[in-house]
Amino acid sequence: MPERDGYIPGVPCWVDTSQPNPGAAAAFYHDLFDWELEDVMPPDSPAKYFMARLHGGDVAAIGPLPEGAPPMATWNTYIWVVSADETAAKVREAGGRTLTEPFDVMDAGRMAVFADPEGAVFSVWQAGTHKGARIVNEAGSLNFNGLNTRDIETAKRFYGSVFGWRTLTIGGAELWTLPGYGDYLEERDPGLRKRTAEFGTLGFEDVVATINPIRGTCRPAGP
User: How crowded is residue 112: how many other Cβ atoms within 10 Å of its Cβ?
Assistant: First the structure.
């Protein structure tokens, strides 16, 4: 797969991790994945945001915890959108909550943070100069995203309304799909549809994430 230069609306496009100690986390992930790391914040900024790269292409980032957040590291998934503000309205209409209102990240883009009806947290990214992960599906880079949920039917209604996602079942596993995503990938990787059909996974080219059912009585939710 060639290096990415942007995504289409509704596709997970970026991940970063919020850390109590970004510098220590940067050292850990450098050793783990051989990431090249650069603090991209202005020199006078007290905060650090380390861009992680493989072969010179952005793969993820490491930043500080949001103000007031519990001292616990998290990974955050960003979904590409045309307008963070319009997505905020869709989230509200579909029964979700806005945790962080849309705001500009310098000239890199515009983002917001939301929770779905069950409480799973996700972010959206309206691209400026930053076009999301450039390297994906390689060792040390983003490969897949998944939603952990106890209420699959509510999740289907919510994410279908906000992003146009549908579901596909392959081998007993239920997956999120975005109609048309396979066409986008086929243009960049000719023969993709034929290869997925040969593997008996027709339709997998439209998959954007997994659905992971949670069994049990307590209700912690997460992305």
Answer: 22
Rg (CA), the chain: 18
Higher pLDDT, 203 or 151: 151
- Strand partners for 18: 63, 74
Burial class of residue 19, CB neighbours in 10 A (0-12, 13-18, 19+): buried
| Dist. CA 205–CA 147, nearest whole Å | 18
Query: What pLDDT digit, counting tens, does each position of 158-172 carry?
Result: 999 999 999 999 888
Retrieve residue 9's tokens. Answer: 């609306």
| The residue to which tokens 């991790």 are assigned | 17
Strand-pairing partners, residue 211, are 147
**What CATH fold (topology level) applies to the domain 12-213?**
2,3-Dihydroxybiphenyl 1,2-Dioxygenase; domain 1 (3.10.180)
pTM greater than the 0.85 cutoff: yes
Q: Which helix (H) or strand (E) holds 185?
A: helix 181-188
The β-bridge relationship of strands 121-127 and 57-64 is unpaired
Q: Is 67 within 8 Å of 31 (Cβ atoms)?
A: no
Per the CB < 8 A criterion, the answer to whether 168 and 207 are in contact is yes
Query: Residue 93, exposed/middle/buried by CB under 10 A (0-12, 13-18, 19+)?
Result: exposed
